[in-house]
Each structure stands twice: as C-alpha cells, then as structure tokens.
Design a protein that fits this description.
The chain is α+β, with helices and mostly antiparallel strands. The chain is about 25% helix and about 25% strand. This is Alpha-glycosidase.
Length: about 575
C-alpha cells in the first residue's frame, strides 16, 4: 500500500455527526490500492465491552484516490476509533498517532469523536431535500401590471441588453403560479426584488422596499402567501457584499468624504471618493464603480444588514436567502447571519454563491448550501463529449467527497442560471443532450433548480442574452420538452431514493461515454442507463433479480442469464427501478 496516500483527520468532512445518533467516518487511499478498510470502534471508557470492527464501503473515487465511508452509531454518543486497511498479505493501521503496521493499544493512540452534541450537529432544512427550485428574474418573467413599467419599456420578447427593460413584475409572477404548480415546482428562487436602478437589481438602493417597477411590499407578501398555499417555498436574493451607488449612506460619503459618518461603512482607499485612472478609489464588486463594497466588519453595517435579513424572514414569512458574492464577505458576518436567520425561522434555507470548493462555509455555522456551479460545468462537459465515463465518474466522485452528506443532500444543483448561457445553448441546441443533462440533474443527489424558460426551450448566450423574456404563447413553446421536465420532476418528487439515496456508478469506462449508475435507499433501487453517443448502443450490466420495471412506462424489464441488456437510441436513456421492501 502507498502509505503516503492514506488520509483521515477527526473533523470536517472526514469525521462528523450526521444526526444526533450517527457519526460518519471517511478514509482516503490510493486509487485501486487497498482491498478492505475497517473501522475499529468503541467507547474509550469501555473499549472491550463496546468494541466493533465495521467494514467501510468504497463510496467514491477520483483520478488518484478511493474514498471509503461508514456510518457508526456509538452506544454512548462518543467514539474512539482507528482504521485497519488490508491489501494482499499487508495490514496497516491508521491511528491518531500515525500509520503503523502494528495495531493500537486502546484506549490510547486512537482518534476521538468526543461527544455528539445535538447543538453542534449540522442540521439542514428537511424541506430542501424535497425541493425542486425554479429561478425567476422578475423583470423577464411576466408583465402582469403595465402601469408600473419603467420609462422606455420595450415590447415583451425583445432582445435583452445590459440596461433595457421589458416590464416584468410580481403581478406577473402571481398570474402564473398555477403554471408552476402544474410543472411540479415547489420552491422559487427570486433574483433581487428591492429598489434599484438596474434591470437585474444587484445594485440595491433600499433594502426594505420592493422596487416600484415590480410592485410593493404588500404585493410581495401576497405572492409569498399564495405560494405557501400551493406548497411553494420562497427564497430571495440578498446582496450584502455591496450596494448600489445611489444607496443613501454611500451618497453621503460622496458628499462629505472622510467627514461622513458612513465613511467606515465602505472600504475607502483614498479620498475624495472617485474613479481614478479607470479604477475606483474604493473597493467594489469587481471594478464596477456603481457597486461599492460594504465593510461588513463595521458593527453598524452588520446591524443594518442583519436587520434586513431578519425583517424579510418575519415580514413575509420568507423561507430562505440566496447570498450574492458570498465568498467575498467575512466569515464572522455569515456566522452572525446564520444565527439571526435561523432564530427567525429555524427551517430557513441559506444558499451561498460560491463557485468553487465551499467546505469552509459548509460546516454548520454559516450556509446550508451553495450554488453548485462545478456540478454544472462537469455535467455539461461530459454530455457535450468532453470526457469519457471513467473521467466523468472521477469528477463526480471528487464533488461528492467535497462535503458532508447533509450538505450533499441539499447542495443547490443547476445546469444554468442568470450568469451563464442557457442550457439548450450550452448543448449546441441538441434536445437529446439537454434531456440527458436533465435526467442526471433529477436523479443525482442534491436540490435541483431550473432557470425559468429552460423547460420550454428558451435559448441564449451569456449575460445579458441568457436573460430573455419568458415565452407564454403555447404555440411558441416546446411543449414536448415541457412534458419531459414535468415527468422528471414528478419522478423525483415521488421517490426518496432519488433525493437521499446512495449514488454510485455501476459502469463508467475509459474511452466510453456511456454510463450506468444507481440510486438506492432501504425501499427502492433505481438504475439509470445513458447512451452519450450518436450511435445506437446496447449497455449490459450484471443484475440477478428479474423484478425491474421502466420508471417512466412501467414496462417489465428482465435480465437474461443474470445480465441486463438495455438498448438505447443515440443520446438515449432509460431509468429502471425495483422495490426492495
């Protein structure tokens, strides 16, 4: 065994409480190097009376490593443990004191999980595990009230630019809630709704007022009430990294400079505040001078913004926040943010916008979830022919091992958003590839999100082209695609195994872009078969039982001589299931 590849630490994603009775342990080994891993577990005060040796399962792999995992239920909520690893005739032990060919001498030398304190268990909102989100940019969704349109509003359906308006508003959302219910949506994520001069509203001027072009606070409250009547949760966008240049405290800084009582609300590098040689003399979002960055370490700023977060939770019974540019705000702020938001609504769902590995924010003291852009990137690369099944399974295994299980169960998975090209455009306009991506989205672990209009075939390049007006004329919608989305949403909502069950690749080979994978819980077992090529393919995999059905047609599907053979059209898929209990 390559001992240098072995890794475990008794914290973070490697040893954590999944719930008040269960500890998850993970070990990393070199790829295809170790045959068996066992957890040697017991209570340090009664080692001999509680000792168990429990095998770990190979849960995932990436290009270089295998990842092993086990769930342990200690008798007294505390756990001492070591690992025994075997390969051929070699046995080694991983302990707190290091790696050795000699076993530990309990209760010394062992790793420890001292106690499962319920208050320390990272709890995510249960409803988010069952949610199917729909992202709405209100300005582009529907114009329900032309009387509140901005000046120079263009006819609905025109070409979007960085600064034009089409008149979408909250009344338009209200008018189409039944359409979302029909699709199967049970959660909405709104991009910013508050007063702002732009069409995207990420340059906020008044954090406690709905933009008058969208309606007013009472209308927002009514929208949330009507959503809740339909079983739809509502998450708003919080822009707490920066504000708009018209935000009154920043205007005061522009007027009074260093003498402004708000001077420390922002990161001012030089007075007077201005654009100098094309660069602001103050910190901003990117280098956009109209978006000055908050100093969230300032107690007054923190009090103001946390007050905003609490206000909307209580005022409209908000179900959560999506946090814009979350990785550029200090961790102290987000820890206090979580305390305030969860005190107002313990089931609030907190999603951070972080585009890379986000474990730092996902240890139970800050966010519940992040926008999983790495998921979208890898899925689209694979289904666009950028890698084979072997490399895809490696990439997805690495993503799964980034976070604890409770985070994986609610990580915010999407295939596109207001910041990326549209899904149909990203797959070159090929609906077959789009469907493969969507099947993967809805049969993968995590909380799926659809960007408005993807379900009826809206196309578009990067911002602002991706922010087209929703098409409401049925004659111009792709209704077959809509029915496909509806079918996949319903399948996911019906089966817990597709939400929280184990995910594992069954077939993912070098130089072959076809894959087979499974989702399984104690009651249901699903297998998903995908032909990611332009030719007809028959995929085969050993399956001993003959009780399989097609999940979409309910047709019986039987293996032959213990092997299942599934014929698939070019870029085709099939989903099979069977009952375990």
């Amino acid at each position: 065994m390559l001992l240098e590849a072995l890794y475990h630490v008794p914290r973070d994603k490697w040893a954590y409480a999944y719930d008040s009775a269960t500890i998850h342990l993970r070990v990393r080994t070199k790829r295809d190097d170790v045959e068996n891993v066992y957890a040697m577990t017991g209570d340090k005060y009664d080692w001999s009376g509680t000792y168990q040796e429990i095998p770990l399962e190979k849960a995932a792999h990436d290009h270089m490593f295998d990842y092993w995992e086990v769930a342990v239920k200690p008798k007294f909520k505390r756990l001492s443990y070591a690992f025994k690893l075997t390969a051929g005739t070699e046995t080694v032990y991983m302990m707190d004191t290091g790696i050795s060919h000699d076993g530990p001498t309990p209760p010394g030398e062992l790793y420890e999980f001292p106690y499962i304190h319920d208050i320390d268990v990272f709890k995510v909102p249960e409803w988010a595990k069952k949610a199917v989100f729909y992202q709405i940019m209100p300005e582009r969704f529907a114009n329900g009230d032309p009387t509140n349109d901005p000046e120079h509003t263009l006819p609905w359906g025109g070409q979007p630019t960085a600064d034009n308006f089409f008149g979408g508003d909250l009344k338009g959302v209200l008018d189409h809630l039944d359409d979302l219910t029909d699709l199967g949506i049970n959660a909405i994520y709104f991009t910013p709704l508050f007063v702002s001069p732009s069409n995207h509203k990420y340059d906020t001027v008044d954090y406690k007022q709905v933009d008058p072009h969208f309606g007013d606070n009472e209308l927002l409250k009514r929208v949330v009430e009507e959503c809740h009547k339909r079983g739809i949760r509502v998450v708003l966008d919080a822009v707490f990294n920066h504000c708009g240049e018209q935000f009154p405290p920043f205007q005061d800084v522009l007027k009074h400079g260093a003498d402004s009582k708000y001077a420390d609300w922002f990161h001012i590098n030089e007075f007077p505040v201005r654009i100098k040689n094309g660069i602001p003399t103050y910190d901003t979002f990117g280098f956009f001078g109209n978006m000055p960055k908050f100093n969230t370490a300032n107690p007054e700023v923190k009090k103001y913004l946390l007050g905003v977060a609490e206000y909307w939770i209580r005022e409209i019974k908000l179900d959560g926040w999506r946090l814009d540019v979350a990785n550029e705000v200090d961790h102290h702020f987000w820890r206090d943010f979580r305390q305030v938001v969860k005190s107002a609504n313990p089931e609030a769902y907190i999603i951070g916008e972080v585009w890379s590995d986000s474990l730092t924010w996902l240890m139970g003291d800050q966010f519940d979830s992040v926008m999983n852009y790495p998921f979208a990137d890898k899925v689209l690369e694979f289904f666009n022919g950028g890698m084979d099944g072997y490399h895809f399974s490696n990439e997805m295994g690495a993503l799964i091992m980034r976070y604890p299980q409770q985070t994986n169960e609610v990580v915010f998975n999407m295939l596109c958003s207001h910041d990326t090209p549209r899904l149909l455009t990203r797959v070159g306009g090929d609906k077959r590839k789009l469907k493969l991506c969507v099947v993967f989205l809805f049969t993968y672990i995590g909380t799926p999100c659809i960007f408005y209009g993807d379900e009826i075939g809206i196309t578009g390049g990067g911002d602002p082209d991706c922010r087209k007006c929703m098409e409401w004329d049925p004659a111009k919608q792709d209704r077959e695609l809509y029915d496909f989305y509806k079918l996949m949403i319903e399948l996911r909502r019906q089966h817990n195994a597709l939400r929280q069950g184990r995910f594992r690749f069954l077939q993912a080979n070098v130089n072959d872009p076809c894959i087979v994978y499974e989702r399984m819980d104690d009651h249901m077992h699903f297998t998903v078969w995908m032909n990611n090529t332009g030719k007809y393919r028959t995929l085969s995999h050993p399956m001993e039982t003959d009780d399989w059905r097609d999940a979409l047609s309910q047709e019986r599907v039987k293996p032959k001589d213990g092997v299942m053979h599934i014929g698939l059209d070019p870029y085709g898929f099939r989903i099979l299931y069977r009952h375990l209990q």
